[in-house]
Amino acid sequence: MSQPAIPPAKNNWRSRRADLPQCAILITLAAALLCLSGCAGVSTASPASSSNNPPAVTVTVSPATATMASAGTMQFTALVLNTSNTSVTWSASKGTISSSGLYQAPSVTSSTKVTITATSVDDTAKTGTASVTITAGTSSPGPLSIATKSLPPATAGTAYASPLSAAGGKAPYNWSLASGTLPTGITVGSSGSLAGTTTQTGQFTFTVQVTDSSSPQQTATQSLTLTANASTGSGNFPPASYFGFSESDTNGGGWPSESYGMQRFWDSPPDQWPSLNTASGVFNFASLDSDLALAYSRGTMEGMYTLARTPTWASSNPSDTTCSDTTGLGGGDGECDPPSDLNSDGSGPNAIWKAWITAIASHVNSPGYTATHAHIKYWEIWNEVDTKLFWVGSIAQIARLTEDANCIITGRGVIHENGNGTATACTATAIDPTAKIVMASAHAKGGALTYGQNELYCNNSPSGDALPCPNPANAIATAVDIINFHMKPGNETGNNCPAPTPCTPESAMQWYVSNIHGILQPAELAKPLWDGEAQYSLTGFTNAYTDPDMAASFMPRFYLINWSLGINGMAWYYADSQAEPASAETAYQQTYNWLVNATLVNPCTAVGTVWSCTISSSGTQSLIMWDTSQSCANGTCTTGNQTVSSKWTQYQNMTIAGSPITISGGVVPVGIQPVLLN
Q1: In this predicted model, what pLDDT tens digit does every residue of 206-241 receive, in sequence order?
Q2: 630 part of a folded domain
Q3: How many CB atoms lie within 10 A of CB 650?
Q4: Any residues with CB less than 8 A from the CB of 216 and at least 6 apart, and which?
Q5: For residue 204, what are the domain limits?
Q6: 427 near 47, Cβ under 8 Å?
């Protein structure tokens, strides 16, 4: 996001606090804290204590059984669960198999049994196998068929992944959805997987199609049914992370007075890396302590900390003024450059970064700390790496920063510290095994989207400062727990809002999420998707949404469509220069009140311009409706009459704290501001 200038005056609806004492607490870390010999040297203890009982890694090979012709080829896939590192190594008892699982059978004169084995890179004791029978005779492909006949059930709000397997034909195969409807958020991957996170429940019947590489090409289809069950957890969905905010005036404590579940620490001057780590081995966490304690006292229990902005003293280019912060939001010369001890290919000691990560993570997880301070559960590795104002290093360097942070904080993963593809297993004792590593944010459109794809996989012709790529190319994808893009629907143009028509919140978010799903591979489709910096456009409420009633309409529409699209984490960017009208703040609080303890029974969909969805709270269902063809101006909002079922007896406007209105004659006036029916 562009750097907003901080005006001298604050909006009158924002709460203030007295300046808290800024007690300088200088902590000189011992030499062992510097972790000079690599993350693996932080500790020789096991990655996580036995009390955490992490689930065991499992490996499943698809197809599990197969018959193929002498000298034929077949593609195998491996599904690895309960680890962020889903890489495997392949082996075959006879014949050869590539690193991607493409098996080449030997020439045989009689029926021959072969075992295909996939071994987890994260835990080499865990393997999956497939049994293959190679028949003698012609090597021409047999009839293509789909071996998958049934699917394991999905759970709403929980990541889902299930492989699809084919038999016969000639690999590689290409998979697609032929017909029918999948639960929102779950997609068919072209390489043969069903993956994603849905908020829907019920039975969904659809047909998948697979095509092979033989000539002429063969095609097969299979009808499948996926059952999506309701969550068996507390039922509090969306989670706290869905209602997050990012406040640029952290030092003044001028946070919104509404309810939030998570606070993102970015553009927060006294709490950024240069402010807390003022010299090598010198740390002052007084300001961060004050703000985390304040967040806790206001009921914000979770935090996301953005690990970015290299201090000038640590920068590889300390005289770089192209990215020097001039608005007082947290940095100095060289803040967009990598640390000085990290090479462009990701090799090097990276001791500056590791000392910083160890210090801050240890401090905010010290004994008893989270009993009085918000818990930094989420660690975002950098801000908007697709923007040179914030990052001018390589993707390989971002990968190394991600891997080292993951190892030090969570005790998980591997480190590619030599730049040549060799991996060192993390042996650090987890500082916080419950923490989640958040992908360095990118944007969900245009060249920025391409950068985000290359950040995860380096598979879309990266160039310039992005190079070199990490080795392996998917190092970042395997190290992160959460996929993170910044999505701010404003005057965008795209598939659903051709120029010069501005996007609506609905069309823009569908466009963004479709863009993201289009670049993700199955493992990342199954991970949570966040809008790590949400806003209306880059400059706050603009054009039609400067009208207070239109601004109010934006809040419930935005949160409902994101929920329906499977986004389960957001941080609304809130700053003086981008402040919302008071009506929007009220609408946000009402939206929070309605959704925070609810489940989404039916996601929001449109019939024409009328959108509707169903939520359930405390066993009571409610229907929500709005009409994007309506609008508000100068205190007047247009509506259209909608006929509804007799089961609904009253309705109320979601943007205000009003009283329910009795429905008369089964007709409800529906406008751009969503109404909730009971």
Answers
A1: 999 999 988 889 999 999 988 776 554 433 357 888
A2: yes
A3: 13
A4: none
A5: 141-233
A6: yes
